[in-house]
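seq:
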Amino acid sequence: MTTDEVQQIISYAYPLIQDTIKSKYGSGKGPIPKIDTSHKNTYAMHSGEPEATGEHAASSIAEYYKGTIYLYLPNIKDEEGLLRALVHEYTHYTQDSELFAKYRDMYDYDEDPTEIEAHKNEENWKMFSQN
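struct:
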């Protein structure tokens, strides 16, 4: 996908995602997360080194971190992947941050209730598509 295609999808879908999830779960703490597409993977984002890499560099798609949704565009292949990432990470924004951190220590990723909820919400990605 081109940067323009990604931006067009975000411009259309992100307000719908916000309204839909907010009506179901309420708002998260703080302002609506901004979206950042300037890093190619989680290692580059956290280290500040553009060429940083690691075990999950090719599979990291997105993350919600400190009020921002980071989208790692080299790993997002299509509209479905982009919309799923936006829904998933916006769901994390609405979740209790203390509980979210506590669950990270208590559960493996696939058993974490906050991840289960975010993955469940992803299933509705088609409702945010223009196609």
